[in-house]
Amino acid sequence: MDYLELTVDLTPRNPWAEILVAQLADMGFESFVDTESGIQAYGQVALVDVKQMEQETLLNRELEDVSVEFSSKIIEQQNWNALWEADFQPVEVEDKMTILAPFHDKSNATGLLIEIQPQMSFGTGHHQTTWMMSKALLDLEKIPSRVLDMGTGTGVLAILAEKLGAQTILAIDIEDWSVENTKENAVRNQCTKIEALHGDVDLLVGQTFDLILANINKNILKSHMAQYATCIETGGILMLSGFFETDTTELIDVAAQFGLELSQLMTKETWAALILTKK
Fold first, then answer.
1. CA 86, 243, 231 angle in degrees (round to 5)?
2. Quick one: which of 86, 166, 95 has its CA closest to 118?
């Protein structure tokens, strides 16, 4: 699978970098990395409409208040792991948990230790969302028994759920290589209660959960909301992240239509997470 790497320099950088990331997230870009002068964005070549991207975002350079320079290149599948290792940093959640890759020094890790081998998964720009989702799990008085990790990626949230005491965890991703990566990382962390499946929300038919985790982009979360609401038991919890603070009102309103009530709003460096309860 080939990816498009888009490098954008913005003058001034703020608030335009955040605006551009929000625009690109709606056009198929999955991951973002902050740079001193702007951003780098990554999206699957097959899913990104380059012409639309250039015409309908800040990249059209028609605004007087910002100067924009950008370049793009194709990253072939075989180069993906090297990029991960070059850019991936440990995720530390207060003193409660550390997420590391095999190539990191573990001597300074604190709390629960989760080791993941990223493979082709990417998303260093979403460490803020991983941090918030992990903190929300760690802050629960008791982890629910039946957990769904939707859009599992590397499987890190599913692994954390098992380490905290969940009895059954279903981890789903639309990418088959993410599913394989989750299985490998589950073994790496001595987890035995995670079932990783390749697919989408159609796999949720007939399933029920006490807790659903979904760290995905805003548009997918909106399209999934009805299925999540159907699958959550009354009193169950839905944790969402993968979107910006500016998207929270929209998502809260959509969730309310399906009987999902806001319990907590978390923010970290312009990113946000919602914890909702099924009425």
1. 110
2. 86
Position 123 confidence tier, pLDDT thresholds 50, 70, 90 = very low
Average of per-residue pLDDT values in the chain: 88
Contact 241, 132 (CB under 8 A): yes
Neighbour-count burial of 93, counting CB atoms closer than 10 A to its CB (0-12 exposed, 13-18 middle, 19+ buried): buried
Per-residue HEC secondary structure of the chain comes to CCEEEEEEEEECCCCHHHHHHHHHHCCCEEEEEECCCEEEEEEECCCCCHHHHHHHCHHHCCCCCCEEEEEEEEECHHHHHHHHHHHCCCEEECCCEEEECCCCCCCCCCCEEEECCCCCCCCHHHHHHHHHHHHHHHHCCCCCCEEEEECCCCCHHHHHHHHCCCCEEEEEECCHHHHHHHHHHHHHCCCCCEEEEECCHHHHCCCCEEEEEEECCHHHHHHHHHHHHHHEEEEEEEEEEEEEHHHHHHHHHHHHCCCEEEEEEEEECCEEEEEEEEC
Q: What domains lie within the chain, and their CATH numbers?
A: 3-75 (3.30.70), 133-278 (3.40.50.150)
Q: For the whole model, what pTM was predicted?
A: 0.76
- Nearest by Cα to 115 from 19, 190, 35, 225: 190
The separation between the first and the last C-alpha atoms of the chain, rounded to the nearest angstrom, is 41
Identity of the amino acid at 213: L
